[in-house]
Fe2OG dioxygenase domain-containing protein
Amino acid sequence: MSLDKAVERGKDTSFPPMSTALVAETNGNGNGTGSAPSNASYRLRLNPNQDHKAENYDDLGLEFTPLLFSSLERYLPPNLLNVSRDAKYKYMRDILRRYSTEGERTRDQKHREYRQKIISNYQPLYRELYTLNPSTFFVQSFSKAFSANDKNRDESIRSIMSEPAPGIYTFDMLQPRFCDMLLNEVENFEKWVHETKFRIMRPNTMNKYGAVLDDFGMESMLEKLMEDFIRHISKIFFLDVGGYSLDSHHGFVVEYGMDRDVELGFHVDDSEVTLNVCLGKHFTGGELFFRGVRCEKHVNTETHPEEIYDHAHLPGRAIIHRGRHRHGARATTSGHRLNLLLWCRSSVFRELKKHQKEFVNWCGECKREKQARLQQSVTAKKMELLVGQTDGAAFNPR
Ligand SMILES: O=C(O)CCC(=O)C(=O)O
Ligand SMILES: [Fe+2]
C-alpha cells in the first residue's frame, strides 16, 4: 500500500456537494437585520436560534434538498421566523440560488430524482432503522452520556472516550442487534440492486462496493444522528474544524473482503469530522492507519514518528477523527468487514477557511513550521544580544 501521496477523497461528483456556505452579512450583534426580502438585503443570523422548531419542507420542489431548508430556517432573522412557510421558503431559496451555479443545481436535482426513484421502489427490510431510536441503536454507556443535562454533558461525553493518539477518539456505540439489522438491510438493498439491475452510485470513486445509506432512505435518520450526537462530540474535541456547526453529512457503508474492496489507500476525507463504526461481521486485518492531520498545502509532507497510529476495528465500536487526519485501511485478509461512515461537514467552517491566512492551527505541519520559525527568531535574538554584549565589552572604556 502506497503512503507516497494522500488522495483528497470525495472531491468527485458521485454524490452531492456539501450544502452551500451561508454566512451572510450580519449587523453588529451578529444577528442579522431581517429586513424585507428585497434583493439587496437578504440576511441570515450568524448563530442559529436553537429553540426554534423548523418546518418540514419535504413536499416542496426539487431545486434544493428539503433538509437544507429545515436546517437553514433557524438562521432566519427573528422577524421572519413566524411568517408563512411559503414566504420563508422563497426567502431561503433566493439566498441559496445566489450561492450556487445553475450547473450545481441541475446536478443536485438529478441526484434527488435518483434518490426518489430508489426510495419509491425499494422495500426496506426493517422500517425501524429509518428513524433514530437511541434506546435500540446505542449501547447504554453511549446513550447515558448524552442524556446528562447541559451542564454535565461535556464531562459525561469525555468520560466514555479514549484518546489512543492525539485527535483520535474511540468509544462503544452500537448495539450488536442494531449492527446485525443494518448489515441485513444493506444486504437486502444489494439484493434489490442486483435483481432490478438498478445502477447505483458507490460511496466514492475509491470504492467498488458499499452503499450510500442516504440514497435509500436513511438521510434524515443520519442527519439526526449528526445533530443530536456527533455535533456535541465535535464541539468538545474538534472546535478548530467547525465544532458544533456541522450542518451536512454523507452517510454510507463500506464493504471489504478478498472478494470485495480489499484495502483503502492513503487519503483524507471530504469532511470536517468523520465517524467510523465497525458493524462486523467476522474478519481479520482491515486496521486503520493514521499519519497526522494536514491542510491542503501540506497534505503530502512526511509523517513524524509521533503521528503514527494503527487502529483495529471491533464490531460496535466507533472511532472519530478530523476528516483531514490522513489515513487508510489495510487489507481485510479473511471474512467480510462492513463499516458505517458518517462524513460530517460544516458550511460555516468552509466559508471561514476561505478567508484564512496560510497558517491553520489544526495542521501538524503548519504548527511545526510556526514552531521552527519561533525557534529561529529566538535563536537570532539570543545571538543579537550576545554579540551586542561582546561588542559592548570591547568598547568598554575600562
Ligand atoms: O475502511 C475503513 O474503516 C475506513 C474507511 C474510510 O476511511 C473512508 O471511507 O473514508
Ligand atoms: Fe476515510
About this structure: The pocket of fe (ii) ion (ligand 2) is lined by residues 267, 269, 274, 327 (CB under 6 Å). Residues 11-39 have pLDDT under 50 and may be disordered. The two ends are 70 Å apart (CA to CA).
